[in-house]
């Protein structure tokens, strides 16, 4: 099977990872195990290569009151994982930053099987080391996500 026929199968697997991660994040009693990539991911700073302007380019004024159609904010800190093909997007607030990353890394390993000593030296980690070393797995208040600059 070539790459052209693979996305539906791959997306089903990555959606399963996101579903597992969110199920575990909703369980307050779930304590994720340490992950061998967690410290490395934590040590790489996140960088946004595109300058972020604080000036509005919108043709409308910034609203001063909350839209009544929006859900009310939760009193609990945010913990959430989503996916677009092979790019995981996590949102979290302190004190759950490390917990969210460990849960996601563990869910990836549960679906894609982590490397072990019996594997060929050419088998790559299920987590993209290229993306991890670029800072994609580190937390930041400004991130480039799927071509969008998200500034929280």
Structural write-up:
The protein is an alpha+beta fold and 152 residues long. It is built from four helices and four strands; from the N terminus they run H-H-E-E-H-H-E-E. It has a two-stranded antiparallel sheet. The longest helix is centred in the first third of the chain and has 20 residues. It is globular and about 60 Å long. The model has no long low-confidence stretch (mean pLDDT 84).
User: N-to-C SSE series?
Assistant: HHEEHHEE
The mean pLDDT is 84
Distance between the termini: 41 Å
Which structural class is indicated by helix and strand composition?
alpha+beta
| Total number of strands | 4
**What proportion of the residues is helical, as a percent range?**
25-40%
Give me the number of helical elements.
Answer: 4
Low-pLDDT windows of residues: none
Q: Any idea what the shape is?
A: globular
Rg measurement, Å: 18 Å
Task: Report the biggest beta sheet as strand number plus sense, adding barrel if it closes.
Answer: 2 strands, antiparallel
Give the neighbour order of strands across the main sheet: 1-2
Strand content: 5-15%
